[in-house]
Amino acid sequence: MGYHLTFEAYLPDGIHNHCPLFEHNRFNFVYKGSCAVYYHRKTLLQLLNEMESLNQLHKAVIADLCSVASLGEMQAMAIIKKHISTPVSTITSRKEHILDLQRYYTHLQDFLSQMVDDPSSLVDGTAILFDDCPPIKDEIWDAIYEVLPEQEALLEQIVAILCASFLVACERQLFDFLHGQWS
User: Does residue 183 lie within any of the structural domains?
Assistant: First the structure.
């Protein structure tokens, strides 16, 4: 939107601005952004509706913030961040030997396969990818698990599709760990 400081000033006292600035965090940036926009969606919509002149980008953002499908996509990306991308990023950034990661990658593959078939534990917040790296429960967690009954089926479909895409990428990029020379 280009209004980071305006939005920060607009936020009520005590509310942290979770909208990330793009700095050195390319892997998780899209997921962090989805978490932030989903968490701040009502405040963002209120700010945009109070602006005197709106350009086409502002109008498009308003439309996305009012769209059940777009909100479902953001919510699904936020769920993926909390349950998959952040734990994977945390595990891979530890000072472990690269060969010790094989067990995590095998478990990731199994987990994604299960979520493709039945993503309900991701959608209801009970899924844990790695026992030694559980999801962080915070105010964003609370926001993404305010699932409206009419969104639940759509959310499960989106999460299953994302998990299927992640599974394909995982199997291609981690082939040596899963089936090759380091398995």
Answer: no
